[in-house]
## 1
Amino acid sequence: MLTGALAVVFDTTIVNIALETLGRQLRVPVSTVQWITTGYLLALGMAVPTTNWLTGRFGGKKVWLAALALFLAGSVGASLAPDATTLIVCRVVQGAGGGLMLPVMQTLLVQAANGRSLGRATAVIALPALLGPVLGPVLGGLIVQHLTWRWIFWVNVPFCLAGLALAWRFMPSGERDRDAALDWIGLALLCPGIAAIIFGLSRVGAGGGFGHAEVLLPLVAGATLVACFAVRALRTDGTPLVDVRLLGNSSFSAASALMFLSGFVLYGAMLLIPLYFQQVGGRDALTAGILLAPQGIGVLLSRGPAGTLTDRLGARPVTAVGLAVTALGTLPFAWAGPGIETWWLVAALVVRGIGLGAVTIPIMTSAYEGLARDRVPHASVITRTLQQIGGSFGTAVLAVVLNSELARHPGGPPDAAAAFGHTFWWSVGFTVLALAVSAWLPSRLTRRATGR
């Protein structure tokens, strides 16, 4: 499953690096190019809530194979696209497949763990999500610099083919409920609601902030639809599309809040760091992507120990230490000036990666702690959605802050360094806020006391 999932997480970050190249070679304006990303994200967001019903009705293996085949078809279509319109349509197909794959992977691996060694199980689940934003820009930079844009999508094909073969051979068929009923009203409320929120957040940069109609209207409409879904899900006698009553569990609600904030901590800063190396350090896009690689090394160093320590000590202490280390690794960027040595920032990225690797795993473990098997798919949908929206929200907020600071510091690299420094302090602040919320995660002692 990891083989197929890597195609999804790499694809998103690789395409982001190549947007300028795509616009230039396809001869389309920025407003059209943005839909290559926006269309993908909207399809992904709308697909996620359906995974609970699909896995119940058809079984996890069939849904996984179908989703991976859909992503493969979208990748091949995108690589052969003759124009921007066809490329956008193929990206929507990719997004639908990717939106199904990631929560299905979470659900099946947690259910396979069956409550045992959840920390080590979630260490496996978290690997693609942690490595994608770090290694994707490196791969994207290499492709943009040395190959044609079509290879951005061809690179997915080997991962998809290998993933299909491995899943067909080794995955069990999984449990099925042939009588599972689809919550059509919930589907009509939740999927457009999530899509509207993501669309509004994607327009923050183009609109110049949160106060414009093209941002506010979809955000308000989306929030209203999601709120209506939540009220109906709480009152219905049947099985809702997503069981929001899980949020009444203190451990799960704390983990959900932290999944939202982790989107700020991971994806928000991943917007800033490559831009810092380019605008302050004077590096090209490929070099900036390569300089991000040490963060991936840090993630790999801490991923295994974080899973083991979570099983032994509980989620709270591991998360708190991980967030503190992440903040420590971000501080050099907040203090850095244009003359700072690159090796110092590279070392900071290793530290930051160690912290990130130790954060996501205990949070996800806490989200699944003590859940009955049939509630795991609902938990996967909620946590996946909150992380995605948190990432979009964090990126939008930091983009607005950075643009504001750059407008106040319109000079050369020294002024740009000051603007980035102030913006990185916001990233540190979000990390500290997440550290405060982590106090509500369960400790090992709490789990024993409650008999879970």
## 2
Amino acid sequence: MIGQRGRALALATTLGLGIGLAGCAPSSSESGSGSGGEGGETTLTVWSWRVEDQAAYEKIFDAYEAKNEGVTVDFKTFKATEYNKILATGLSGSDGPDVPQVRSYGQLQPTVASGSLVPLDDEVDLEGWDDNAVASAKGTDGSLYSVPLATQTVQMFYNKGLLEEKGLEVPTSWEDFVAMNDALLADEITPIAVGAKDDWTLPIVHEVLAAPRFGGADFQDAVATGEKDFTDPDWVASVQVVGDLKKYMPKDVTGLAATDAQTMFTSEQAAMIPGGSFDLAVLQKGNPEMEIGTFQVPAPPGSPEGSGPTTAGWSDGNFAVSKKSEHQEEAMELVRWMATKEFGQMVADEVKQLSAVPGVTYGDPVLGEMAKSYEANPSPYLLLTDFRYGSPAGTDLLGTGIQEMLLGDKDATQVSSELDKGVKSWFEPTKK
């Protein structure tokens, strides 16, 4: 897919980070960007959209400060849905961060195109890292602009105690999966917690429930070369899988937010929830007594030959250096540290995410389980890794489409056709 990304550079700026929106970024008196303290001390500001990780990052940066005398890291978080505009405004002015947390793949490109980031090719060594992770941190010009933070995966979380209480086991076939859902429903327990009011979650739900049905990584290769597109019968059938499983979701699924679905799961009203590895800390905090497990949903009937259970993944939350930082040397040193195993291990231990740094170990058994599943049967979160390089983005189109399907306004064929038409307005397949 890398070949088509270069052709998408001109389109990347249409993704709309909203540069120039006055008033979104904090004032200089609030941000402390590039401020120097008495005795030659330097304060580096780090911005992020991960409000829920505030305490974890403060602990991580305390460890950095302890080893780097004279440097203070001021970690600031903003609402995720407002972050892109806030960051664009901050980077274009004098009140932005020294080290911004940036998006990945196609969503990184507007920030790169704005000229706001320092290229890192000669500063950071990512040799031996996962190719998918490194691709997430590069511009369409092939240069490296950030250090990957985490490998995110999507999978089915489940309540181990609840399943054991009901005499149910992790399914190893689609028939077992359906039978388990039927048994839970008969016992008046919602089998699968989904919050379809937030349409951005629905491509994740689709990946968890139906990636084997469209063919996972093999389908990615076929779409990349133009051999197949999103009107392919296997893709349409995979969208239909989500519609067929609606009966196992909350009755008011399209009226529930993602946080409502998480609450259903942590309050043990629902047995399972499809989600990302980034959800783990939230779920554990919501019910510390619950024993959470994960599994790969078995392949639905009709899946292409050789297409089995898979764990889709991507990289996200990367860190970069602002060109307008008044302390670029210190900012660069911090970002170099973010590529070390020391930082990666703290991300795993404190943030409870799968670090993008190779060689990290996982004390949390659920994190370890997710890491092993991804290593054993990886596939790309296709619409995020390959179809966010233009507008409309693939994830936006599928999210809205599945929401409309669950509302009864469209069928799987219509959803797939509109996805295909939307991405073809900017996507060009590579040639073999």
## 3
Amino acid sequence: MTSPPSRFDELNLSRLNLISAVDQAEVSEWDVTFEAHGRIVHVRCEALPKYAVPHGLDSDVTAALINLYIELGEPEDGRFSVSATTLLKLCGWHNTGKYHGILRVCLERLHTSSYSVSGGWRDHPKGRWTHAKFHFIESLDFSSSDGAGAFDDRTIIAGRLADVIVASIRSGYVKPLDTEFMLSLSRPRTRALYRILDGARYDPDHPDVRLDTLEFNLIQWADQCKIPSTIPGNIRRALASPHEELIKRGYLRAATLSGRGKDQRVRYEFVREFVAMDAVLARRFRSYGVADGVARKLLVEHGRDALIASMDRFDGLVRQGVLVVKKTPAAALMHLINHPDDYPYPKGAPAAPAPVRPARVEPVMEAPSVEAEFASLSLEQAAERLISRMNVHYRKLLSVSDLDTLRQAVMKELLSPSAVLEEATAAVVKLQRENFAQTLRARLGLPEERPIK
């Protein structure tokens, strides 16, 4: 199983937990009412009987879609386009026929299941608690090679996330989610419990505050995890294996059960040294090309404030021309962090005509051309990159079938991805997106079609 880097989670979803923490589910609805900070919160899920309520592996898919949406630049309309191959990678799953089938079912379940949240959805910018009714995926389209709609290596998936989820993410109501760690856990229920616990640690009114201990009534915690039982013994058995793995893997220090009968309680103690990247720091490191795993290690070694100061210092030295990038921004920043005494501070840089000559001076790195962006990629990677870049401005103008055909044309070397992207970008600048879309469809041998609404 491949492991994508650390990403983010939307705080309402992680706190309320809309995915049942069981490997298999048979029920088609659940209904939970609880008190939170003096408020009565009511959450309900209704699903089609053929799919059952969202559960298990659906948690991987929702996490992947949230981060895909963020990587696409958080478009206001909530739309996304992605190949099935890329989405499988984001889920941390193998690219096989089995997982193509699982992905199809998960997406259908998230599209058809409806949620109702009364008094528990946080509109954080306004400091209000609101009511929300939605499907996680409000619209869903995909290309397929047969009439049954089976996914394959060519499949392109397009959809739209719920408006309330989009608004929450765009407002910054997110928390770090260590997906590398999450997807390394052995079972879907353990991954789901990790995500629930990690969300429960954050104060919804003050999302910068993270708790080191949590304690719940066992039956109420089962409701929170959407474990379909009110029998304490069954709940304890359902949680036993996830508790054991999370303790063994160093996330939990302890998971202690106490009391008797319906008064039983579960207390969680978290390992303080387990470091997850905060959203601001992670996003800034990514802008330099620093991998999340490396950034987490730096955070442990240097601390947040020192790293931000180092990045500010790096930016200042580059602007002044004192520090010149030799290879990549990531490598140059890492060298400054690890060898701070090798560099002057921006305010102390000499104003005299004679510039400071860094030991590693080479010509300043130029912004890569579109052609260079694709130069080191395989045909499949180039096709994926093109689809991702096209999604920003053409998600309403090109259908999943159009993108499917475009992806294949690149992989068969019938079209140059850099040339297509350059033309597409030029069309945006000239306000000629519709004309370009029609021209591209004609080049692909596709019939003329009206834009997607």
## 4
Amino acid sequence: MSLKTTTEVELVDHSPKPAVLIERIDIIDIVRGVALLGILILNIPYFSMEEYFTEPWSQDTSNPNFWVHAVNIIFFEGKMRALFSMVFGAGIVLFTSNKEKAGKSATWLFYKRMIWLTLFGLAHAHLILWIGDILYFYGLIGMLAFLFRKMKPKYLVMGVPIVAIIGFIANTLFMQKIRGEYLEYKVAIESQEAGNELSDKELAAIAAWEETRKEMIPNKEEVVENTAYMKGSYADVAGHIRPKAWDGQTKYLIFSIWDMLALMLLGIALYRWGFLTMKWTQAQYIKTIWIGYGIGLPLVIFSFVYNTIHFPNVEAGLKYIENHSIMWVNLIYDFQRILIMMAHVALVILLYQKGYFTRLMNGLRAVGQLAFTNYIMHSVICTLVFFGYGLNKYAEWEYYQLYYLVLGIWIFQLIISPIWLKHFLFGPLEWMWRCLTYGRLQPFVRK
């Protein structure tokens, strides 16, 4: 197996217009395909399950839901999103390097590309109604990561723990705010139950916590109402989803920047170091696998067990934050997910180098090449299966049953994506994005 294979070679074109074909590195498309399919594992419960869906079986080791959830948390949760962000960072270099080597400025073209991606993300969240959209964030944060694309890889990698710690501090401050509101609320309620007349400050504390609680910790009656919205008409679902999506894209944007930025910078560094282009030796990839799984798996298993014991339900979570001002266990999260993500990538690269699973690798390459289209396809399929204006299966399946649909979508995309690319140069959404970026119609049908 060649260390670097080229599926499409860019035609020489000295004009500012885009060439008809672009150079692609197969292994990056394969890794992107793995990330794209893996993300559905974590996304599908949020298309289909009501709030607190894990509570009935969160500590029940006899329930299959518990073990499916455990596997998801240990091997996939956070790792697939990290992988997708890392490959996106590498894509920044891929998009700009050839143009800059030819003496052309890629800045405005790249920013146009990101602006359109941001708009696609808004449409994804507010029209297709996927509350977990990442395109909007990638568009905005990609503009920031672009500024670091020429920095030496060692500095980019050094920035990863720094940015991760900044993210931890930002989230800790946010949790401190919530904790403060909750403690003030508790004092006010205790005073009220003692028969005291509440002061304006105590009344304000109760109102502040009630607003926060309703937004982030709905009670059982509100969960029932929210489920009814999701099982209603398009207008019902939109009325429930859009305000939450907009809050995530505006009010809480500052908390999303750090994670994605750090991983994009890591992706730029790993691309320039040759990790993502198979320039490392097989011994180095094997070492990465041993280190990644050897350290990452014990960390994530400890974290999973700790969270299972201390956070089986909302009440336990509130009791915990009442007694703990900082959740130090959260520091484990970024380290274990990056370690395991790196091991995942090294394993895929090693399997590819050795020529194993050739048909699967070809399917993953095609899925990754059509990642934008396939990502949106996930949302279209899931909303039409689970939301009220579709098949209305929201809150009706067991957790483990969701993964029959995941497997079905995987098989479909692994089969249809290579077939599509035999006839077309790009996926439909990739083609549209390319046309909008370059400001002119691009070739679409493969000759």
